[in-house]
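Here is an idea for our session: we take a single protein and study its fold together. To get us started, please write out a protein record for me. Start from the sequence, derive the backbone structure tokens from it, and show both lines together. Go ahead whenever you are ready, and we will take it from there:
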Amino acid sequence: MGLLGADLVRRDGGWMVKRILPGDSSDSKARSPLAGSGIREGAVLTHIDGRAVDPVAGPFPLLAAAGGTTVELTFQPPEGGGRARRVAIVPLVNERPLRYQDWVAKRREVVRQLSGGKCGYLHIPDMGGSGWAQFNRDLRLEVSRPALIVDVRGNAGGHISELVVEKLTRKILGWDITRNAQPVSYASNAPRGPIVALADEATSSDGDMITAAFKLLGLGPVVGQRTWGGVVGMTGRHTLGDGTVITVPMNAGWFDAYGWSVENHGVAPDVEALRTPLHWAEGRYAQLDDAVRIALELLEQHPAAAPPGYDDVPDRRRPPLPPRS
């Protein structure tokens, strides 16, 4: 199926572009086919490769097997004014990376608004290569804020939680001051102030483990719901004679403070917060709101590390010469 990276709605017998996802240039998979094409939100998709879009079935039957190929789309401008516009695009085979980056950007914007710009926001989708890349791509910018929200909701697990913990446990011991540049903390990429973690019932496997590590190391409070409780992992896959693939549990997690109890139970948050269907309907971000509120309270109690001023910089200028005799 070819996907357009846009939300289309049926209106007045036509299929209107409600929203075009902006895409993210830092992620090659988060490409938005219609972004930059000159098509505006509100335009009506009328034809695909010269074939009229069915008012009931919509454009999707005409986009079957079109992913990764070039197709021609015809749009009628908003409000029916002006001439129809034709554009050639390459539809996506998979919209998930595009929509994920849009999801992260929305929540980062919410955190900025709720905190007045004082909180950074990082989401870690899994504890594998993609999650490690997502964590590091925005790390320097987000830890430069006075406080930090680390969101592991929906984390699919993996094996690199130790690397994330190593980064988040760094302490600022000093600053590297460069002429005409922003100060850089030493150690680099270290949080300046309090950290608050967000977890939910879909935080699983290595996501369970990093949530436990947050609590055991005292990195910061955990807000949200009790994690999934599925720490046991498998090593290798086995194919049966009929083609069925099975996996066998091979690795379990044990903690000094929890014993074996993280398995089948999960890690309980310090502050329980649930986003209800009413919150979804009203567009409220209950868990983010609680996390930001707690982060700002901690920030008042423990101010963020800040680079030094220039008041006490040693004066290394050459002293004045004595008067000539």
DSSP finds seven helices and 15 strands in the chain. The helical segments are 96-115, 129-137, 139-143, 161-168, 206-217, 277-282, 286-301. The chain has a mean pLDDT of 92. The longest helix spans residues 96-115.
